[in-house]
Amino acid sequence: MLRARWLVAGSLFATAPVPAQVSPPPPSEQPAPGRDIIVIGSRIPDFQRHLDTCLAEHCAPDKDIAATLALAQAQFEAGTYDAARSSLLAARRRNARFAKQYPVAVANLHHANSVMAGHLGLADSEWSSALDTVSAIKAGMAEDDPRVFLELIELGDAFARAGRFKGSEMRYAGIARRAHKLGLVEIEGLALLRVATLNTRLAEQNHAMFASSARRAIDALIARREPALQPYQVAARQLSFLLAAQTTPGPELDRLIARYPRQPAGAPARLLYAPAVALTASVQGSSNRSDPSLGAGAMSSAGMPLVGIGSYVGQWIDVAFTIGTNGRISEAHISRHGDHTKVEGGWAEQVVRAVSVRRYATQAQPSYGRERYTFTANLIAVTGSRLLARDPTPRLVRADLGPETAASTASNLKPVS
Fold first, then answer.
1. For residue 76, what is the enclosing H or E element?
2. Nearest to residue 136, comparing CAs of 157, 156, 158, 107?
3. For the chain, how far is it from start to end, CA to CA, in angstroms?
4. What pLDDT digit, counting tens, does each position of 397-409 carry?
5. CA pair distance 99, 118, nearest whole angstrom
6. 9 within 8 A of 398, measured Cβ to Cβ
C-alpha cells in the first residue's frame, strides 16, 4: 500500500515507501528500507565510522547511500545542518552516476538533499534536487512504473513548497488522469488525495477562496468505489473534518470531533483540527512564508531590507507533546533547540502555542509526537552584486521526528536549559 507524506509529514527523509535495493541492515547500525530513517541510539561518530568502513571496503552505492542517510539524519537531529548537507553532497558526488543501476537509492539521496536544502533556505538547490530525484528514478525505471509516478508526485510537492500552488495542483491532476488510464489505482488515489490536501491547507489561509475546491476534491475521492482507494478515502474523511473545523467555534468543534470514530490501540493518531502557526510581522521584524502544511499565510515584504546570511543559523526547535485519549494535546514543550533560538516569545513560542491547541480523534491509549521546526529564509542574490543575502520573508519548515525516546536522547542534541 502506498502512503501519503508531505502535509502529513514523516521523518526528515521519509516519503511514500519505495522497495529498497539493499539487504535488510542490522537494526542498530543502518536505517530502515526506503526513506524512513530512524535514529535508534547510536551517536553521530558511530554512524560516521560505519560510513567510513563502508567506503574503505568499496561498498556498493546503495549501501553507501543507506549509511550516508543514517548519518545525515543524526546530524540533522543534532542541529548540525551544514554537516548533514555536506554528508549528502559528498554521497551525491560519489553515487549520482549510478542512477541507472540503483535508481531508488540515488533518488532517495537526491530527495534527502532537497529536504535538507529547504531547511537551510537554499531554494535553488531544493528545487534542482527535486528535479534530480525524478531524473534518477527515470534512469532505471520504465515510464509507467509506479515508483516513477511517486517521484512525479514528490515534484508536485516541490511546486507547492515553492508557493507554485496552481502548478502543483495541475501536476497532481495530470498524474491522476494518467494513472487512471494505466490502471494504477493506488497512484491515482494518492494524487487525488494530494489535490484535496493542498486545497484544504490553502483554505486555512483563505477559506472563502479555497474551501469549495477542497470540498469538491474530498467528495470526489470519497465517492469512488474501488476497494484499493479505501485508505485514501479514510484520509479524505480526515481532511473533511479539518476543513469543517476551520470555521467551527469551540462547543460545536467538540461535537464535530466527538462524531469521529475512536482510534483503536496501535492505530496512528488522526489530526482533526490544526490552527495556523500565527507568525506575524513582529517576528524577527519580518513576515513569514511557510510550507502550506503549517497553515500560515504569507504577508507582503515589499520594501523590506535583505537580511544577513547568518541571521537564521541555529534557528530550530523540537516540539514534543502528548496526545491524550480524549484527543487533546498536553505537555507541549520545546525539548531541544538551536544555539541561537530564543525559546521565550517570538516564533518558537507561537509554534508551541499552535501545537498545543490541536485536536485529534479520541484514541484507546495516549500517543506521543516530536516535530522539528526550522525558522529560515531563502538565500538570494543581492542586485548588482555577487553577494548573497537572506530574503526578508522567512520560511518555517517542519519535519516529523517521531516520539522522544531514551534512545534518541542519547545523541548529542542540546536540551533546553
1. helix 61-77
2. 107
3. 43
4. 999 998 764 334 3
5. 23
6. yes
